[in-house]
Amino acid sequence: IATMRAESVRLGKSGYAPVKRLPANQKLRILVTGGAGFVGSNLVDRLMTEGHEVTVLDNLFTGRKKNIEHWFGHPNFAFVVGDVVQPIMLEVDQIYHLACPASPPHYQYNPIKTIKTSTEGTLNMLGLAKRVNARMLLASTSEIYGDPEIHPQVETYWGNVNPIGPRACYDEGKRVAETMMYSYQRQVGVDVRVARIFNTFGRRMHPNDGRVVSNFIIQALQDKDITLYGDGSQTRSFQFVDDLVDGLYKLMNSNYSLPVNLGNPDEYAVATFAHTIKRLTGSRSRIVSLPATTDDPRKRKPDITVAKRHIGWQPRWTVQMGLEHTIEYFKKELEDMGEIIPT
Ligand code: NAD
Ligand code: UDP
Ligand code: UDP
Questions:
Q1: 128 CA → ligand 2 middle, Å
Q2: Higher pLDDT, 295 or 340
Q3: Which of 90, 179, 256, 281 has the fewest Cβ atoms within 10 angstroms?
Q4: Between the CA of residue 154 and those of 63, 179, 290, what are the distances in Å?
Q5: First CA to last CA across the chain, in angstroms?
Q6: Atom of ligand 3 nearest to the CA of 104
Q7: Whether 146 contacts 297, CB under 8 Å
Q8: Is 100 in the pocket of ligand 1 (CB under 6 A)?
Q9: Strand 53-58 relative to strand 29-33: parallel, antiparallel, unpaired?
Q10: High-pLDDT (> 90) share of the chain, %
Q11: What local confidence, expressed as pLDDT, does residue 342 receive?
Q12: Nearest atom (ligand 2) to Cα of 87
């Protein structure tokens, strides 16, 4: 039921969304790095609702205070403005390590910082996990498969990444982060979980995020040109954020410590996706073709057999249901920004 809820937060009498009352031995202290971002803030809502104590660590590079401000002042919630590249001492039972810009324009804006965030940042979180004996989950990515030569992608595929291209700061950063996770597991026994996340969309995406779902929806809502990069024949598979949050929660609390793909296998050519969004928004936009971006993966689709078998997870939202929900969210964002939506 939690995965199917349409709104992430409904206010109770206290002014906060209701949270479960957990017995002391089940209430965990949980750190969410990157918790003010798109995925992180949706995960924070779930963890708070489940009754845990949540600390968000975020430098607000791409995250926003408004994504988590509905928990400010709650006795179970703490927000630390800080950078994972700096060491930090905290006492926690679990770490969800999400801190890292995820959209290509954001992670390419300062590639040196991106690689530091994935390497030094993950090292610090692993040092913390080791010291306090916490279980740690890394938000890895389908990008570690690069431009894949096998389709759909299974977790045993080692990938095809250009180590020196403009995407490398992100892809190789996450690959090293995975390597660090399993080195700390082997050498000092840190309890690790690795989620390989495929393209995800939903509420709290930044309107200027620059990824395909936010670009297309905002362009369509404003009747502006919908920008296809390349001919649009490249494919992606899109999952709604509530499904991802459910998968992250299930993976963290499972006994499975190898990497797990989390994604919706429903695969679209980007051009088809543009038409779908145009139809769902009733938009008059034109669909225009711009030059392709460097090293853009040709296709991407998760094989989710491992997730089904080992953590009992599969997506429950159809892409269309998720898009309808997300379109409503972006309409409201545009209104809040004072933008005019043509009627
Ligand atoms: P996002 O940009 O909305 O969130 C990232 C968060 O991390 C932001 O709040 C940002 O301020 C914070 N951050 C960045 N660098 C930091 C640093 N050095 N120290 C502290 N905080 C820092 O992106 P998202 O889509 O929510 O992605 C969250 C995680 O999931 C990322 O690790 C990303 O790589 C991974 N992921 C996301 C997707 C997706 O489709 N959304 C796909 C694959 C993997
Ligand atoms: N670290 C941290 N918080 C902690 C423990 C460690 O930020 O609670 C950092 C530490 O500063 C180091 C990294 O994590 O940069 C790796 O720590 P580890 O103990 O594994 O390595 P070492 O400090 O021995 O190099
Ligand atoms: N894309 C596009 N127009 C846009 C933004 C993205 O055609 O305005 C394409 C992009 O080239 C890629 C796909 O959509 O093929 C997904 O891009 P995104 O940046 O969302 O995520 P990626 O999977 O590349 O990390």
A1: 6
A2: 295
A3: 179
A4: 30, 18, 31
A5: 35
A6: 19
A7: yes
A8: yes
A9: parallel
A10: 94
A11: 79
A12: 7
φ/ψ region of 321 (left if φ > 0, alpha if ψ in -120 to 50, else beta) reads alpha
CB burial class (10 A; 0-12, 13-18, 19+) of residue 334? middle
Name every residue whose Cβ is closer than 8 Å to that of residue 49 and which is 6 or more positions away in sequence. Answer: 2, 17, 18, 19, 20
Owner of token pair 């460097």: 294
What gap in Å lies between CA 228 and CA 249, rounded to an integer? 34
Per the listing, tokens 């202290």 go with 29
Structure tokens at 318: 């159809």
pLDDT score, position 165: 97
Question: Is 329 among the catalytic positions?
Answer: no
CB within 8 Å of 105: residues ≥ 6 apart: 210
Structure tokens at 145: 């498969």
In degrees rounded to 5, what are phi and psi of residue 28? Answer: -100, 150
Q: Indicate which atom in ligand 3 lies nearest the CA of residue 167.
A: 25
- Cα(83) to centroid of ligand 1, in Å? 12
Q: Which of 14-18, 43-47, 109-113, 276-280 has the lowest mean pLDDT?
A: 14-18
| Annotated active-site residue in 16, 170, 184, 268 | 170
What's the pLDDT score for residue 151?
Answer: 97
- The dihedrals phi and psi of 229, each to the nearest 5 degrees, come to -90, 115
Give residue 64's identity as a one-letter amino acid code: R
Q: For the complex shown, is ipTM > 0.85?
A: yes
* Cβ proximity of 319 and 326 under 8 Å: no
Residue 8 pLDDT exceeds 90:
no
User: How do strand 287-290 and strand 239-240 relate by DSSP bridges?
Assistant: unpaired
